[in-house]
């Protein structure tokens, strides 16, 4: 595993986005893995390690998360800035084409980029996100994202994470891995989630409504694997079924998971590998 970073330009100046990567840096087959709203690139350690024999796997921390810089103006936490940052990262690593695995927000970003003219995105894995994000799921997320909470111990932070994150049937070690990489200690020694509470700004800008991503989805031309957590409220059965009517779209439903599967299971990794190698 190696570290990388690039300075990205936003409306209020530069900020640094960081990533970790696996595999041969000279491998022209590049796989970008992008996390969900409050998560970080280290979510993909298990997947990246197992795909590094065939790919250069690059896992960024989107601005305001993980080890990447926080943005000065919280209104800039939005898809246009994230897409611009990712384009800067692709230029920095010299990637002419990539395949993409995106969980939730990371899948939306992959969908947006895959829909662009002359896109660099080939095969696209959408992990528990679809062409519509229901209002009810956004309202649920709004109940916890951005809250200023702290904990006496890392174990207490992990317990809070488990309460709002139905990631599926994970081992204790996997839960611990997912907790430590989204945790930080503040000046008083208390544990906090490692993201800028300001990322919640879009949820506070006005009344929430369904997020209709069909204009992007309908413009995607490459092969797509849609992964759905069996109990997900973000990728509903109805939206899932709508997406599967698109030619070239494959599906995997992860039993026991809600939003979102963490892709740390051997069967999930095998399904992703088979799709990418097809």
Poorly predicted ranges: none
Q: According to CATH, what is the class?
A: Alpha Beta
Q: Shape from CA axes?
A: globular
Count of DSSP H/I helices: 10
Short description:
The chain is an alpha/beta fold and 278 residues long. The protein has one domain: 3-Layer(aba) Sandwich (Rossmann fold).
Protein traits:
278 residues; alpha/beta; Rossmann fold; 10 helices; 32% helix
Describe this structure in words.
This protein is of the alpha/beta class. The protein has a single domain (2-277), classed as 3-Layer(aba) Sandwich (Rossmann fold), CATH 3.40.50.1820. The protein has helices at residues 45-51, 79-93, 105-114, 135-142, 154-164, 172-180, 201-204, 214-217, 237-244, 266-277; strands at residues 2-10, 13-22, 30-34, 56-60, 98-103, 121-127, 132-133, 183-185, 191-193, 211-212, 224-229, 249-254. The strands form three sheets. It has an eight-stranded mixed beta sheet, with helices on both faces. Strands 7-10 form a two-stranded antiparallel ribbon. The longest helix is centred in the first third of the chain and has 15 residues, at 79-93. The chain is globular.
Write the layout of secondary structure elements.
Blueprint: E1 2-10, E2 13-22, E3 30-34, H1 45-51, E4 56-60, H2 79-93, E5 98-103, H3 105-114, E6 121-127, E7 132-133, H4 135-142, H5 154-164, H6 172-180, E8 183-185, E9 191-193, H7 201-204, E10 211-212, H8 214-217, E11 224-229, H9 237-244, E12 249-254, H10 266-277
Helix pairs in contact: 5-6
């Amino acid at each position: 595993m190696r570290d990388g970073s690039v300075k990205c330009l936003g409306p209020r100046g530069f900020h640094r986005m960081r990533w970790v990567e696996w595999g041969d840096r000279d491998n022209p087959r590049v796989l970008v893995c992008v996390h969900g709203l409050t998560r970080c690139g280290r979510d993909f350690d298990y997947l990246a390690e197992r795909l590094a024999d065939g790919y250069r796997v690059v896992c960024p921390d989107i601005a305001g998360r993980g080890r990447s810089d926080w943005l000065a103006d919280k209104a800039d936490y939005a898809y246009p800035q994230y897409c611009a940052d990712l384009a800067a990262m692709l230029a920095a690593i010299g990637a002419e084409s990539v395949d993409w695995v995106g969980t939730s927000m990371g899948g939306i970003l992959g969908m947006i980029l895959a829909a662009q003219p002359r896109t660099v995105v080939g095969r696209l894995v959408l992990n528990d996100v679809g062409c519509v994000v229901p209002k009810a799921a956004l309202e649920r997320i709004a109940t916890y994202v951005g809250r200023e909470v702290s904990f006496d111990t890392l174990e207490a932070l992990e317990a809070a994470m488990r309460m709002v994150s139905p990631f599926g049937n994970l081992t204790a070690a996997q839960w611990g891995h997912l907790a430590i990489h989204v945790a930080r200690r503040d000046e008083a020694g208390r544990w906090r989630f490692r993201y800028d509470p300001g990322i919640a700004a879009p949820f506070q800008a006005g009344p929430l409504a369904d997020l209709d991503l069909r204009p992007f989805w309908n413009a995607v031309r490459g092969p797509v694997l849609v992964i759905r957590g069996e109990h997900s409220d973000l990728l509903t059965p109805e939206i899932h079924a709508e997406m599967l009517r698109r030619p070239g779209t494959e599906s995997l439903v992860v039993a026991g998971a809600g939003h979102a599967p963490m892709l740390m299971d051997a069967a999930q990794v095998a399904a992703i590998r088979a799709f990418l190698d097809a």
